[in-house]
Amino acid sequence: MYYENRSKSIFSRASEYIGIDDRFIKLFSSDVLDVLAYSEVWDIINIIRSSPGGGKTTLLRLFTPEVLLSIGDRKRRDDQTVDVLKKLQAINVFDAKLNPLVVGTLIPFTSEYSTISYLSIEPAQKSRIFFALLNVRVILSVLYSISKIKKLPFPDGLSAITISQDPSKVSFNPLRNISNGKEIYDWCCKNEEVICNEIDSIYLRPSNDIEKSSDLYCLDLLSPKNIMVAGEPLRERILVMFDDVHNLSTSQRKDFLNSMVNKRPSINVWVAERLQALSMDEIISEGNLTDRDFRLINLEQYWNSKYEKFEKFTKSIAQKRLSTITEGEPTSLTTYLAEEWDIEQNKIDEALSVVKQRIGKDFKGDQKYNTWIKSKEQISKELAEQLIEWRSLEILLYRDRGKQQQVLFDDPLDEAELEQRDGSDVRDAARLFLNKEHKFPYYYGTAKISRLSSSNIEQFLTICGKLFENIVVEHVKKISRNNQSQVQISTKKQEHYIKLLCEDRWRELDSRVPNAATIKQFINNIGDFCKEQTYTPNAWNSPGINGVAITMDERAFLKDVVLQDETHSYNGLAKCIATCIAYNLIDFRLNYKVKGKFMMVLYLNRLYCVRYGLPLANGKFKERKLSELNNWLLDKKQSKPLELGL
Length: 646
Prior knowledge:
Elements (H helix, E strand, L loop, with lengths): L3 H9 L8 H7 L17 E6 L5 H6 L3 H8 L6 H12 L11 E7 L2 H5 L7 H27 L11 E3 L17 H20 L17 H4 L5 E3 L2 E2 L3 E7 L6 H14 L4 E7 L5 H6 L3 E2 L3 E5 H6 L2 H17 L9 H4 L8 H19 L6 H8 L5 H19 L13 H7 L2 H15 L7 H7 L4 H24 L10 H22 L3 H19 L12 E5 H9 L10 H12 L3 E9 L2 E8 L1 H4 L12 E2 L2 H9 L12
Parallel strand pairs: 1-7, 1-9, 2-6, 6-7, 10-13
Antiparallel strand pairs: 3-4, 4-5, 8-9, 10-12, 11-12
Helix pairs in contact: 1-21, 2-4, 7-8, 13-20, 15-17, 17-19, 21-22, 23-27
């Protein structure tokens, strides 16, 4: 049986907001840990970036003490946590006895920090107050995490902790004469209160009561080499995870990142932020890369390059969430979503007749194609499959006729040649064309739902939530009719609800994205161009294109020249592209090699592909000049609402 109120929340809330640790673990999918499966994960600063809803906070929360202890607890472990445990062991988070080897602490950057930047004091003073507050909170949080992992009462048990400092290895700091953990805790609590009172003061003046800082001295102080617990060296790693760095002011973020990277801390540091926090040239430069001191991980880019893994990941997420709201019902999303057309046979027959008539009119008199056409006339498959085969044949006929180099007398084409040319891409194009011509569903099924999420977990959950609301309604209807059959959403309804969601998200851009009118105009022109290139009789780029590309040299020009000059005629274009990337309206690929050139490909977010009737697979795009893209910013087109189909 389903519980409607729970079904809505379970797909509408990201794991980061699930409050109970056991429930968080049950909903956590181990596949995301593949992002960290590389040898330097504990030897380098990890900077994790994504658009909103990419899964950054969910990943970080896994490494907090309460969650790790729950995973390692044999009494509380079930089948759902086994995969998580195995992958954590693979990256040395647990020892053989399932004791945590990581003391993790999560430091969220709330708006309180950015408030400091608005104080009426000198910039240098603001920076010192910011670092002072951040240092004491990191220290307090790490002390708390140690007490949890070591099962010490908090805060009184902190007396068992000793933090010694080697002056040659630890930078100058206000805690140089204190080593007892409880005394350090008391000092930090007192200073945190003083700092917060000063920030809240209406008449803030420089105060001698604040132990100000100019850097993150806590990252040296808290090295495991400096820490003893009950007289024994701390064997666990210290992991400080800074979340929501995008909430900092521009100057704070710059100072924070510079201080952290320049210090080369002796503890493990991970940083998570949204792409919106990046400057325009940082966004256009964005990509997964490893520096000597840090590694950048863009979650959407990671999944984009590993689509099969992402599809498995999304199926796992859906199954885990469904298992918490169903009783005695299947937990696979596939069970509830029809994967085959449920169209009336007479409508399929009518469409088939139309296609056959077109082929007969345009090609039957050409002896070259007789064998191809006769081979289709002899098939005895389901009507839906016949329709797809005939529509694929029509595409291939136009494609062959349109070849530039035709010989004077063409030999007839045989059936083997037809089979060789009739690939899955052509059949997908046939389905797409039938969607446009006869409104037969195209956007349905678990594989396409995964594609529609554009490698963003929140977008995937939103789509599932929309579909699952309908599942609940249908289930209630069947109960009222005493019908025990399995609930399943038809392909037509799936597409209908996906289109509804697409239009909702399109309208939301007006309040969610800066310069929304310009952004939507740019997206509209890309979509219309891709639609024009997709729906050609020969489907030359089957199944179609959903992106455009510029050369890497042009990308470098935007980054190094255009963005540095506010008066440049392409400045608006460069900012528009950066904004689209930051808000996950465009997926991008760097260094895509084609015809001897390296390209930056700009793919539409897959959910918005629905607005223009475009395919969802990666790989097909067309190069455009910067001048044409720039014209798209100026070419205003009226956005047409989607035909919802029901």
